[in-house]
Amino acid sequence: MSKSLNQLVLPIAGGTALAISAALLVANLDYGQNQIESLERRVEQVSLQAEDASKRASEEAQVVTELRAKIEEIQASANERVASGENLTEYAPRTDGKFGLGREAVSEEIAAWDVDVLPDGRGLPEGRGDAYTGEEVFADKCASCHGDFAEGVDNWPVLAGGFDTLADKDPVKTVGSYWPYLSTVWDYVHRSMPFGEAQTLTADETYAIVAYILYSNDLVDDDFELSHENFADFEMYNKDGFVVDDRPELEYTKWRAEPCMENCKPSVEITMRATFLDVTPEDGGESVMNDATAQDTPTFVATTAAPEAAERDTEVAAASSTAIDPALFASGEKVFKKCKACHAVGEGAKNKSGPQLNGLFGRQMGSVEGFKYSKVFVAAHGEGRVWDEAALVEFLAKPRSYMKGTKMAFSGLKKEDDLAAITAYLKSFGE
Ligand code: HEC
Ligand code: HEC
């Protein structure tokens, strides 16, 4: 039975194989034919291109010859003029004692350049705007970089807070804490902001924004209106913080000695760059700049100072009762950059414009000695309320709704991950 089946199957299989190989042969022949044709076409194209190229080359050679001839001609005519005694290096002719270039600037052009504003208000255009209006304009045009409350997004400049930190190791210099003249704010904003769209703000918008920046610094109330009329009366917080530079009289004599050139370092090296030091935001994020610099920058590898800091941090983390996941700690540390302008934490942390945050969990709200809290915090303290994780998360998500009237000018953390990370981070500084 099996044999007879074989006899039947084999011829069938053999026949099929034969048919397939025949088909393949035909296909192969076809393929060869096609390839020959396409190669022939290619040869044709290439020879056309070669013809074209040689034509162009001869045309270009022609142009070169013509140009050479022209140069020779000019040279010859110059030589002739020199030979005839003409002075080729003479200045261009003057008309009326001027060079005869350009034209008088028209008054509109001068006005467009003449935008400076002086401390006494000279140079200000007429106009007005209040902090309410300013808040809207600011949210629209400035908050993407400077934050809703001028607290600064990532490492973009902080415009509010930092009061009484100027003598610290890490001073927070803002419009509120540092700038001595209001005119600088008006002039700077009107002249150069929004970054990348300079000089698009109207005078009224600028008055309103400046009023809002003052409000976000707690220097005026929210119904404050700034105008060209009351501008010069406004006194900035740090108006007396600058002194006239009297070094020529007082210090110059000290420097008259020969400079000391002993015990110099044998060589000077760059140990860190600004991007690693984190003064430049790491990525473009929501901001429009720095994409290019963020790409291709090596990730931060601590070289000199940082390892100590890392060790110290790990020690603190290890010392705390709950061991903390290093990755979470690291992301918490990153989130804390948003708080750093106003809060310190860790060994020797002092109050800045916000209270120090050591041992936060289990601590009574509004209880840091020597810090002047707003009324709502004083009330919370009176009620004996205590910080725990839930309270902190709720507060940080929406500071102004959790603590109505708080003076913490911070818009809040939107991401759950950030909230979890900051909680873990702060926890590591004692419970
Ligand atoms: C795209 C991001 C961006 C936007 C939007 C933006 N700024 Fe700025 N702002 C910056 C940068 C960057 C600097 C620092 C510029 C420098 O130091 O040269 C700055 C600096 C400032 C400063 C000076 C801060 C200081 O202490 O030196 C003020 C004030 C300011 N901006 C106000 C505004 C206002 C008001 C708006 C909205 C009309 C605005 N900015 C919109 C990026 C931005
Ligand atoms: C612009 C400055 C500023 C920023 C930014 C800021 N804070 Fe505050 N923070 C304050 C001020 C001011 C207070 C005091 C609030 C009051 O008295 O109303 C405060 C209060 C607090 C308190 C209450 C402390 C206590 O003793 O009861 C906590 C907790 C806190 N901030 C955490 C944070 C964290 C975490 C961040 C960052 C995610 C942050 N803050 C960002 C200014 C700031």
Automatic annotation (TrEMBL):
Keyword field contains Ribonucleoprotein: no
A Pfam family of this chain: Cytochrom_C
Alphabetical list of InterPro entries matching this protein: Cyt_c-like_dom, Cyt_c-like_dom_sf, Cyt_c_1A/1B
Coiled coil: 29-56
Keyword entries, A-Z: Coiled coil, Electron transport, Heme, Iron, Metal-binding, Transport
TM ranges: none
Domain Cytochrome c: 129-217, 327-430
Protein name per the record: C-type cytochrome
Record organism: Roseibium porphyridii
